[in-house]
């Protein structure tokens, strides 16, 4: 049973807005683009797992992309996939790596080698152990029952070679998922959760979900003044002009009525979801009367705030 579908992460939209607005000649552009492509490849790799869900027992429920606050803590827990069964819960961390991986259990370290270059990376085995501690706190608050929590790291790229100094039980290629679930069901046989309790736990976790957003300007140490403002053409990325109720691109001659909506969304993704009329005029490059009228399509006024401020609603 699917408890929470996989969705495009919110910070993906933020990266798309940054890459639209950051000049391609800026020295940070290539780095931000590479980071985004890496995250996107990982997200695509997660979809490799979907094929194997058909081979799981019917009493296994799964929860994609758990990103939730931890009770009585300033931290959040982020889990790629959570499997829930009557007898156990499993934390699944998915990694889409290329090349060759070497895990050092002694140093708790991962070394990735690709294209002749080696890179020391954060060990996902240590990551899932931290996730288990955080999930235990959530379950103690929401479930008030003890249930075995297992951890597993899957590599989603079937062409990625895995090596280690010692055998690692909770590390495998993703194709091993159905086999491991059968092993877990054989090992853990004492029912703790009913079907109804699993469903209720899923609803509680959904209520805990947070928007996974990132301050990309701070992350890359970018000043907002270097971002391209204005309404951008969807086809050629040039700045459009307002002509008789339409947005017109002088470069490729694209024409439309709603291109300003993406401009306002970009502002919300990179800055904040509220704007004053002056901020909107300066960002979109519009006259006051035109800007005020078009903002009504996407914004609502924030009451009792001065200067008059509007909240993005889409």
Description:
This protein is of the alpha/beta class and 314 residues long. It has ten helices and 16 strands. Strands 1-2-3-4-8-10 form a six-stranded mixed beta sheet, with helices on both faces. The chain has a four-stranded mixed beta sheet with strand order 7-6-5-9, with no helix packed on it. Strand 2 (61-69) and strand 3 form a beta hairpin. The longest helix is centred in the middle third of the chain and has 19 residues, at 124-142. The mean pLDDT is 92.
The SS-based structural class is alpha/beta
Compute the number of strand runs. 16
Order of strands in the sheet with most strands: 1-2-3-4-8-10
Q: How would you state the average pLDDT, rounded?
A: 92
Note poorly predicted spans. Answer: none
Instruction: Write the H/E string, N to C.
Output: EHHHEEEEEEHEEEHHHEEEHEHHEE
- Most strands sheet: 6 strands, mixed
Amount of beta strand: 15-25%
3D shape: globular
What share of residues is helical? 25-40%
**Amino-to-carboxy terminus distance:** 30 Å
């Amino acid at each position: 049973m699917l408890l929470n579908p996989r969705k495009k992460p919110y910070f993906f939209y933020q990266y798309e807005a940054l890459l639209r607005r950051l000049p391609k000649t800026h020295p940070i552009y290539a780095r931000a683009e590479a980071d985004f492509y890496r995250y996107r490849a990982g997200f695509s790799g997660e979809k490799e797992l979907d094929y194997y869900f058909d081979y799981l027992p019917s009493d296994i429920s799964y929860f994609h992309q758990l990103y939730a606050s931890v009770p009585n803590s300033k931290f959040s827990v982020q889990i790629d996939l959570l499997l829930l069964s009557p007898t156990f819960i499993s934390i699944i961390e998915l990694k889409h790596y290329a090349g060759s991986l070497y895990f050092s259990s002694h140093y708790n370290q991962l070394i990735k080698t690709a294209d002749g270059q080696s890179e020391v990376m954060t060990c996902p085995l240590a990551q899932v152990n931290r996730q288990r501690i955080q999930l235990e706190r959530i379950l103690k608050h929401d479930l008030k029952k003890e249930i075995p929590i297992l951890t597993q790291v899957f590599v989603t790229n079937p062409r990625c070679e895995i090596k280690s100094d010692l055998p690692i039980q909770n590390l495998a290629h993703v194709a091993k998922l159905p086999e491991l679930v059968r092993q877990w069901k054989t090992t853990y046989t004492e029912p703790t959760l009913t079907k109804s309790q699993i469903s209720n736990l899923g609803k509680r976790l959904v209520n805990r979900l947070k928007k996974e957003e990132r301050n990309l300007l701070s992350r890359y140490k970018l000043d907002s003044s270097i971002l391209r403002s204005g309404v951008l053409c969807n086809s050629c990325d040039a700045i459009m002009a307002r002509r008789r109720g339409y947005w017109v691109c002088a470069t490729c001659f694209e024409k439309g009525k709603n291109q300003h909506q993406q401009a306002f969304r970009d502002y919300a993704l990179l800055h904040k979801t509220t704007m004053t009329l002056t901020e909107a005029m300066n960002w979109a490059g519009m006259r006051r009367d035109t800007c005020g009228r078009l903002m009504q399509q996407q914004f609502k006024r924030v009451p009792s705030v001065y200067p008059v401020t509007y909240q993005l609603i889409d």
